[in-house]
């Protein structure tokens, strides 16, 4: 017997798992909407500067609207914030923001900036996240912050499916929790944190996840054993065996969970999963990541639609369509096929229905698929016409219509471990086989070939094929991966995984769980009364697995105990000839309401061969037998004898009842005629009423569509306004701080300042201005001319009007009435765009300066008077030996004047002042702090022609260059000559 390997059930995933590329850095996509500014500021303020990641922020903003977001985030961010351009290469350790209202996508670490599609719901976060998952795979990180609606939910599902990391803001910390709560409900979020905690956790994850320079290998024996132990924990916890899954895929998913928990060794993770059983559930979900969407690969669905239309044209009205979608995940693809089938049936005019079975191994995703609720992001995959026809708009999403929901039956089922559905017209299993080892792929394809009826269709994913089964499948569309099953030999049953691990036969497709166990003691009397009341021949009551519940009549010619251990399973007890028909009839009875009848079944027994009639029907009453099946065994002789007896009894009673029936028929005709007339009248009235209601309904539907469109537009506008409002609130807070700073600055200068408008009315003033004009806070808005000033100056208003007219500032020193001096300046008030919007008047307290100037002036006059009163000649030179000043005696002695000598170099004076020896003595005296006395021969210059004795004194100062004071004494001079 061939041993089967039991992998987990397929999931709808189009992406091949690939190893991490160490040369690439993580791209972090951040989506935020209403209330997101506060969360973004908290996030960027905690960014690790050298984490080697690029951050892309996407928000809801109106196209072309001015935004303060880059400036606001840069104030808090330790790294650079830039507005991204189309085609720009992304660099690590930067924050990128798209232009307002535009969509951003990434490919090969370059940006694609495009305007939103016209006529579609603008969902920029979903658009960006999905491109991030498609192009970056395991390098992608998606973060959902505060916002309303469900934008970003579909995107984070695809990021998680591609092996990336997903974070969501804790709804309790978000101003608006709609977006993060929707992402959390999708079961795709790895971390639920407050924004300020995300950067640190992100850095820890990246340091463990992207630290390896080479892809992981599962060829090391110890590593393979450790992985096998982890898989054993999953099987023990979830009853699903992953041994048939590709090892490289399983190992990468395991290492992702290790990075989330900060573990680096597989052995440590094995011990961790032993101590934390719920981690096995999380890893189970990780391995069953689903990436599915409505009408994924539109070209493939167009090809499928053409083949389904041909298949429908070939079918007769009494043959319903049977379809199976294993690994349905959230049901998007199953609902897509249901919508396609509904459209084809309506267009063809056929009157048969459709049975679509959608299965998955995860009970939670099956429950979610049954609800048929989807986020608003599906509008990117479903046309507006289909949304209006097959969906009902709900808050922040859509719900599938009841007509489409009624076509599907959802059940928990493993495509390999559990029995399949049979006699299918279509089996859609896309992108499942790529995760199986080759041996398991062949077994699953063999199972599919058995399940699909001849002429039926197999729909596979773009990376899958039918290698080795070309004799069973014919390629219909190579690109779309649509195949048709050909008539021929079915695979032997022993080659197919038809039995469960316990050896039981397939569960009925419409049932998800087995009925509760029943005891023979409680069932026996009920079954006996039911069977006797119907006078049925030998009958067995069984459950869906074939286990015997009750026997009625002699069933020996049809059933016999099996050798070995005793068994109550009628499938095993059935005699030859009945053994194959019985399980098939039970499966068919479980999938329909009508009984299943098999005539001319030849059963071999000890007495030879017997032709019999087999009838199987599903029981709905009484309640104790609901979900069970009655199997009736009749030989053809018994069945024909009973039918003949019934015909004889009917003939005897026919004549007796004929007369009474004719009389009753006459009365009935008369009554019926009156009823028909009344009914026709009522029909006319109802028809008229129906037309009115239909017209009203169309009007209401049109109005509802308009209201729905308006609501979507208002919701989008509201989100944009909330974002802009948050930016303005932040700017107002900053402006308030700036205004406080300016007010404190002006008050600290103690300069009286008054701001006037064009009408010379007070706009604002500083506290010191109250001393000048006697202003109070309520005086703002009053004309300046209405106030009495504390100034001894009457031309204030005239000066202000002159400055406003000429735009030339004016400055003058004036006194207050208590004799204090103020420096008044009047200047035009210029705005940031260089417009004149009034005046600024300042009054600087210069009283001390003015009084000091007066004292200095008096001292100067005193000094000048003293110098002039000295009888000897005095000359003051600066450090360059230029004349600074001299007294009247000097000018008289040397026969010159102040106008001629002032500012000249001493060597430029008339006569022998340019004597080098004299200049050398003067320079030496300027450097030495010693009084020097020497004779100078200037007989030709001096009055009386006498030589003079010159005394030089250096005058030093701490704040000015030194000066040289020269005094000349002609009374001590020598007479010229020998």
Descriptive overview:
This protein has 978 residues and is an alpha/beta fold. 39% of the residues lie in helices and 20% in strands. It has six domains: 27-209, Methylesterase CheB, C-terminal domain (Rossmann fold); 221-287, no CATH class; 298-495, Vaccinia Virus protein VP39 (Rossmann fold, 3-Layer(aba) Sandwich), CATH 3.40.50; 520-639, Beta-Lactamase; 750-850, PAS domain (Beta-Lactamase), CATH 3.30.450.20; 870-969, PAS domain (Beta-Lactamase), CATH 3.30.450.20. It contains 26 helices and 34 strands. The strands form seven sheets. Strands 3-4-2-1-7-8-9 form a seven-stranded parallel sheet, sandwiched between helices. Strands 15-11-10-16-17-19-18 form a seven-stranded mixed sheet. A five-stranded antiparallel sheet has the order 21-20-24-23-22. Mean pLDDT is 79; it is low at 1-19, 212-221, 492-521 and 972-978.
